[in-house]
Specification:
This protein is of the alpha+beta class. The chain is built from 3 helices and 2 strands, in the order ααββα. Strands 1-2 form a two-stranded antiparallel sheet. A hairpin with a 2-residue loop joins strand 1 and strand 2.
Length: 111
């Protein structure tokens, strides 16, 4: 809850900056809008991520954006990636879409 309050407060501060700065150009406004949208997506996907981790489900990939990877790295059992198109994100869990016998799979954790 505290995390979401902090995200909301940061978004409101950025919106206030945009509103009161009359010299802010159109391109800057679009970039700030995209960053705010990605911040909302990040907080949503992070909820999936932390819930999966706390439940013992293996997370294969945590991604912001869609399409081709721009940056990607692996830490522990999870691949973290930033993708080209800032239109969403996802948290891919083991066994979420298909049957998996691997330990920590989504389909075996809740049975």
């Amino acid at each position: 809850v505290i995390f979401f309050i902090a995200v909301f407060a940061a978004a409101m501060n950025i919106l206030e900056l945009i509103y009161f700065n009359a010299n802010f150009n159109s391109c800057g406004s679009h970039c700030i809008g995209i960053l705010l949208f990605e911040l909302i997506i990040f907080s949503h996907e992070f909820g999936h991520f932390i819930t999966a981790k706390l439940s013992g489900v293996k997370v294969n990939e945590f991604a912001l954006g869609m399409g081709p990877k721009i940056i990607s790295f692996v830490k522990g059992e999870t691949r973290y990636s930033l993708r080209l198109f800032p239109i969403g994100g996802y948290c891919a869990m083991e066994g979420e879409d298909e049957d998996s016998e691997e330990k920590g799979a989504f389909n075996s954790t809740f049975h």
